[in-house]
User: Fold this.
Amino acid sequence: MKNRLRILFLASEVSPFAKTGGLADVTSSLPKALYDMGHDIRIIMPKYGVISERKYILREVIRLKKIPVRMGNKEHVTCAKSAFIPDSKVQVYFLDYPPYFARPDLYVDSKTGADYPDNAERFMLLCRAVLATTKLLHWQPQVIHCNDWQTAMIPWLLKHEYAQDPFFASTSTLLSVHNLAYQGSFDKSVLPKIGIRPEQTNEDLEIYGRVNFLKSGLVTADVITTVSPTYAEEIQMDMELSAGLLDILRARKNDIYGILNGIDHSVWNPEKDEFISAYNIDDMNGKLENKKALAAKARLPFDETTPIIGMVSRMVDQKGFDLVADVIDKIISLKVQLVLLGTGDEKYHKFFKKAAKTYADNIAVFLTFDEALAHLIEAGSDMFLMPSRFEPCGLNQMYSLRYGTVPIVRKTGGLADTITDFVQEPDKGNGFVFEEYNSSSMLTAIHHAVTAYQDQKNWSKIQRRGMKIDFSWTQSAENYVKVYQKLESKKRK
Ligand code: ADP
Ligand code: GLC
Assistant:
């Protein structure tokens, strides 16, 4: 293929191997789309304890049996194994270093609820090992595509430690920001542990007196992307959403692109979903079967005319659970049932557990991570609630549209880019949208949805409209390729 690009793609989580949120869905489905377009794309991620070598058939790679990585005064001997993303030909290298990665959790120790104290060392080792791995493979990427803070030190390393290395002379870097709220900010005392000498510290590395991995990447990457056009604008305007990095982002305004995430139709498709009864736009009977199955699973009394509102989410402040908690009684008085699947902050666990007891016929709460149930909630719910305070992109509203489950969302980030309010625009609306971040605006939107639901003809119009929208990766992956090509043409100049 002409213009075939060699792209090295790095991420701290990739579905189905390891996942805490939407990042893993994107880092699996975007590379698949790029491969299908004919590009040479390879992924590197950590080999966590949760990744089964047998299930995914991880194989040794002769050249990668020993990858020595020097960090400070320590030499860590790592290795890497390889496998393919299931049902694809995208090759993934798993960086294996048990002292850092063979743990039950990815970033946060579920036993203590706190970040692992050595996260700086863990992910700096990953970044350093990635560059060593590439050299051992004799595979020179044209673009290194980093994702989020865990891989954001690669551009810094290339600028500050590999600038003279001919191997990377024609390698460009792209940093995708999936969520600016997570930055990898550490006390400066980590510097010797991550192998950075005092004379190497300058404004590329620090902000507010701390080492900040994401900031370093934002300053040193050749180009930056984020996961929706609206979020790209918001983070250059809004003090809160820029999370302390407003000046840094503004300084790079010409290099920031907002590219909307796509969804993977081989995983999220009601016609072929292994976890549900199949259905499609012409035959929605299966959706009713799924609603029954969901009510049974949630131990809620089934009533066809009572709308089920689904939520599947990390239970953190970003996602607007405080608004839901604030008016939970009023929501239930609208005669709806709520099925919630999520894990996160203890305060939300406690609140919703109690609410499920108080409203045993109306609220069901699952405080676990359960892929199959996430699919059943998408398929069996009538509505899907995402009242996010901010949302870089959000995938569940797009999954919901595909499953004929009508989204109720706050107008922010990717939610604003994908959902149009039915009340304001009856000819175009595919969901219900509220603007102000407060519980009464949210309640009004839920009320509008419940009212529209009473008119089944109208409701099915909204459902069908959503089901027809194409949010597959085709367009978005092409937008990434355009950015890669821009980087290539810059090099030639
Ligand atoms: P974020 O990445 O901020 O968590 P997204 O909407 O982009 O939000 O993606 C969330 C992804 O994680 C979706 O695929 C969703 O189904 C999944 N998810 C979140 N929490 C759970 C859970 N408890 N069990 C199963 N899947 C979950
Ligand atoms: C982040 C964001 C979410 C986005 C996902 C994938 O976790 O919170 O909005 O959809 O990354 O890009």
About this structure: Residues 473-492 form the longest helix (20 residues). The chain has two domains: 6-262+474-492, 285-471. The CA atoms of residues 107 and 119 lie 7 Å apart.
